[in-house]
Amino acid sequence: MRIISTDHHRNGISGCPFTIHLINEEGDTKVVIMFDGHPDCVAVLSVDQLAKGDIAFGSNSWRGDVYAAELRSREPV
Hints:
38% strand; 4-stranded antiparallel β-sheet; alpha+beta; 4 strands; single chain
């Protein structure tokens, strides 16, 4: 997994802040959204599939826990 970019969003005044990662894995670019204070809430979507309008579970859905664990292991201490 190669991290392309990372940013943190406060998500408005009352939204749930999150960190967003754009990653490349085996030629597929994915968006990984990790919500602050909710370590089990992670969304992962393929950018190419999103561009085609595919937001379906089972088609454009990925194991968020796997990606979050890998990304957290790379965070500076």
